[in-house]
């Protein structure tokens, strides 16, 4: 099985330091829906793993988060594609939840859902937490320059050593395919 895990905010949709709090604020990164459609056409399973601490912070409800995901699903359907799985963590870092990236809980849930190991599979993210969790599961991490990608690169963190960097999700997908 060819399975890819994508972060959401900053990879699939535009990110905001003020949080994406409503479906009206959820806008795809240019080329991201096309990228997912290309993956699906090539037979890939596409999963999303996203930290959504805005739920715990009270910025939006689980129902609103679901509405954002339904907008994502509807926009993908217009491209003739679908996402196979969306995992989210509503927790903040102080909760010390194993589900919140860089904890591996969401990736474990994806492995359980599809009955496969994620080792060796690609994961695309824009933060150090995305890179850390991908490495923790033995995945191949890719960093994009969308969302928090430029800030992540600016840290020059040793965790980024050897991690391929691309302009956006579409450029990663073009390389993978």
TrEMBL record:
GO terms for molecular function: D-glycero-beta-D-manno-heptose 1,7-bisphosphate 7-phosphatase activity; metal ion binding. InterPro entries: HAD-like_sf, HAD-SF_hydro_IIIA, HAD_sf, Heptose_bisP_phosphatase, Histidinol-phos. GO terms for biological process: carbohydrate metabolic process. Its cofactor is Zn(2+); Mg(2+). It catalyses: D-glycero-beta-D-manno-heptose 1,7-bisphosphate + H2O = D-glycero-beta-D-manno-heptose 1-phosphate + phosphate. SUPFAM superfamilies: HAD-like. Its EC number is 3.1.3.-. The keyword Magnesium applies. The keyword Hydrolase applies. Gene3D superfamilies: HAD superfamily/HAD-like. The record marks 50, 101 as: Stabilizes the phosphoryl group. This is D,D-heptose 1,7-bisphosphate phosphatase. It comes from Hydrogenovibrio thermophilus.
